[in-house]
């Protein structure tokens, strides 16, 4: 069964199956609604329901509060229609957005590599037509035996959409990532949908581009940096990668080679808990501290992209704001899970 959804202020009407979310139906049919986590946690996809009733489904009570539900708001990434509905969404025109419709993909696992003790690189060769995505975007991966998809950012360059690389950190107590780490093998088949998200390079801003990744949050920045350098971007590009010890730092050789080849690219890894036996001579402390040391005069007119665990993102936003870079120049991809409800309540974190 399907219902009709009208999206204001653009006035377009589409069909939405009863098992489909508003966001899924819109992104498949060329209507680009704002979204980020895709899982009812961040609140980015909040829309007003002007007419009709929706089922709020799995919306977190922090991302969509009770008073907001009573005020007729819903989360497009969770809400399903129970009748014909009219919604109003804030559809900003972002000149860097390509609005690529999401599709379903099936793929074969061609390679699995231990990048660190708790992060695996997983390569998926797509059956049929390659995926088109903007570097920084993510896919929703279905893990057999686990209810609901899991979000993973694409770590490879968009130049090759026939095979994508994912970097998957094993989450203690998680349902899907331990399965991916312990049972997935080369030759297995997986399915995913995508591309999702608004975390992509804002080339139109020009100037210095700063990428900050924490842990497996190197995935999106890796794709974005590769794409910028491959396409001949000649303004400064910085990549800051935060890890605990030397064993947790991955793709160091790749980025050191790129820094040697490209005069405009600088790579700054920082270890928060280096082992004395590591012989580490580089930056130490948290990644936002290394960032501050690299830019003593602040970040005015630059563009920063932050990707990874919520505590790292929150600390880095504060550093950037103290250095005169504000909302319009900061873009984030928060690797939110059900464990992050406390973070979602923070005002500075919610705003960006
Ligand atoms: C846009 C986006 C992109 C991402 N990209 C990447 C990436 O490139 N690489 C990567 O490694 N990760 C990425 N992540 C994070 C990744 O999606 C999660 O780590 C993954 O979904 C966890 O799956 P899981 O089944 O193993 O854990 P889950 O079973 O989902 O559990 C995750 C954690 O939350 C806890 N938890 C679950 N539900 C609740 C609850 N209701 N209350 C309190 N605690 C709860 C669990 O105990 C566990 O600690 C991304 C996330 C987002 C939103
Ligand atoms: S995209 Fe819907 S809550 Fe995050």
TrEMBL record:
Keyword Ribosomal protein: no
Domain FAD-binding FR-type: 102-202
InterPro entries: 2Fe-2S_ferredoxin-like_sf (IPR036010), 2Fe-2S_ferredoxin-type (IPR001041), 2Fe2S_fd_BS (IPR006058), Beta-grasp_dom_sf (IPR012675), Cbr1-like_FAD-bd_dom (IPR008333), FAD-bd_FR_type (IPR017927), FNR_nucleotide-bd (IPR039261), OxRdtase_FAD/NAD-bd (IPR001433)
One family name in Pfam for this protein: FAD_binding_6
Boundaries of every 2Fe-2S ferredoxin-type domain copy: 3-93
Keywords: FAD, Flavoprotein, Iron, Transport
Domain of life: Bacteria
An MF annotation (GO) of this entry: 2 iron, 2 sulfur cluster binding
UniProt-recorded name of the protein: 2Fe-2S iron-sulfur cluster binding domain-containing protein
Native species: Martelella lutilitoris
């Amino acid at each position: 069964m399907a219902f009709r959804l009208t999206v204001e202020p653009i006035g377009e009407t589409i069909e939405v199956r009863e098992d489909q979310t508003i966001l899924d139906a819109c992104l498949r049919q060329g209507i680009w609604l704002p979204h980020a986590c895709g899982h009812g946690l961040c609140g980015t996809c909040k829309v007003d329901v002007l007419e009709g009733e929706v089922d709020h489904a799995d919306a977190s009570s922090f991302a969509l509060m009770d008073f907001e539900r009573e005020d007729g708001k819903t989360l497009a990434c969770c809400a399903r229609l129970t009748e014909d509905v009219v919604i109003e969404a804030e559809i900003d025109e972002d000149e860097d957005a390509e609005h690529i419709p999401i599709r379903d993909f099936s793929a074969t696992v061609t390679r699995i590599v231990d990048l660190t003790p708790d992060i695996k690189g997983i390569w998926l060769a797509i059956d049929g037509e390659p995926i088109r995505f903007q570097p920084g975007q993510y896919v929703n991966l279905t893990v057999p035996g686990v209810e609901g998809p899991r979000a993973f950012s694409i770590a490879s360059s968009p130049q090759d959409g026939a095979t994508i690389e994912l970097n998957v950190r094993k989450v203690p107590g998680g349902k899907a990532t331990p399965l991916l780490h312990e049972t997935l093998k080369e030759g297995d088949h997986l399915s995913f949908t995508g591309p999702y998200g608004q975390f992509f390079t804002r080339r139109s801003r020009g100037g210095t581009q700063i990428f900050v990744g924490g842990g497996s949050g190197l995935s999106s920045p890796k794709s974005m940096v590769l794409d910028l350098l491959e396409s001949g971007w000649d303004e400064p590009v910085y990549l800051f990668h935060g890890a605990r010890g030397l064993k947790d730092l991955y793709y160091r050789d790749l980025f050191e080679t790129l820094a040697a080849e490209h005069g405009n690219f600088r790579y700054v890894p920082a270890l928060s808990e280096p082992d004395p036996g590591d012989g580490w001579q580089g930056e130490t402390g948290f990644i936002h501290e290394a960032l501050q040391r690299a830019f003593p005069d602040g970040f005015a007119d630059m563009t920063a992209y932050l990707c990874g665990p919520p505590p790292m993102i929150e600390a880095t936003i504060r550093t950037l704001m103290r250095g005169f870079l504000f909302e319009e120049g900061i873009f984030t991809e928060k690797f939110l899970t059900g464990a992050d409800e406390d973070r979602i309540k923070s005002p500075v974190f919610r705003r960006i």
